[in-house]
Write a structure and sequence with these properties.
By secondary structure, the chain is an all-beta fold. A hairpin with a 6-residue loop joins strand 2 and strand 3.
């Protein structure tokens, strides 16, 4: 009997903070229409993400994947770094 796993959500976002040794915060930007006026409103959601290798820097574009709870807030992990930041933050 083969067991198939459900597909997990994957998103692309921008690293906005490095909050620990293996933790980062990633902002996911999207637009949604206003309920009454139908104008596009800019929104963002901030995810607490597990970065096992610690290679992400502020400003990087990363692909993240949903996973089991890793801590109180972390439910996502880094799949790959799409684009490194051009700005050096130190």
């Amino acid at each position: 009997m083969s067991v198939t796993r459900n597909s997990r959500k994957q998103l692309i976002g921008e690293v906005i903070s490095i909050s620990g040794n293996k933790s980062i915060k990633v902002a996911f930007y999207y637009k949604s229409p206003h309920a009454l006026y139908k104008k596009e409103i800019k929104r963002k959601t901030i995810f607490h993400v597990h970065d096992e290798d610690g290679q992400c820097a502020i400003g990087d574009r990363v692909e993240i994947m949903e996973t089991r709870p890793l801590s109180k807030l972390k439910r996502w992990r880094v799949v790959r770094i799409i684009e490194k930041s051009r700005i050096s933050v130190e």
